[in-house]
Write the structure tokens for this entry.
Amino acid sequence: MSGTADPSRAERMLDAAVAGILPPGIRVACRAIRQGDRALLMPDEATSISSRKGSMRDASGAARQVAHGLLAEMGLSGVPVVRAASGAPVWPADVVGSLAHDDEFAIAAVAAAASISGLGIDIEPAKPLPAEVANIVKIDGDVLDGVDETVATRLLFAAKEAVYKAVFPRDQVILGFEDVVVDLSAGQGRTNTGRSVQLVWCLSPRIVVVAFERA
């Protein structure tokens, strides 16, 4: 749950930071997760999400509430974003999108499939990644040059998650960290399945990475 004293202000700050990195055609918005956000799930969404844990359902409700608003901006009001058996969100026809959350914030990204063929997003706290996790995430070929060392591996973690979300709907292939190579200096992620996507990110107030491939 959000530990911020003023969730609305925190949302505005994060929205502004993300807006500054987005390429044309991609919409992103966030929400501080509040206790009870599970009530924001539409009936079909609630049924599709198997987790009984209240905090997870609150995060799912927050993420989908944001997604509903973004879809409404595209003229698609009242459309549920159910969870597929794979765990990926199911978007309306002609739309690509992605959802993510950490312990405090949920975030969503959407775009028209006519302009963006693959889209992924991830959010992480702007804190160092534990060493035992960093050792799994980073592989030979990853380039972290030019990024603050204290958050570089956390950014790498988020980037690989975003790349995976961007390519999975098309390839339906489960990828591990070792299957994605990220070059932060070039703003690019590549998979061992032959996909190459662009990356943009912000580091404050939270780490947010958007991975996308133009149609």
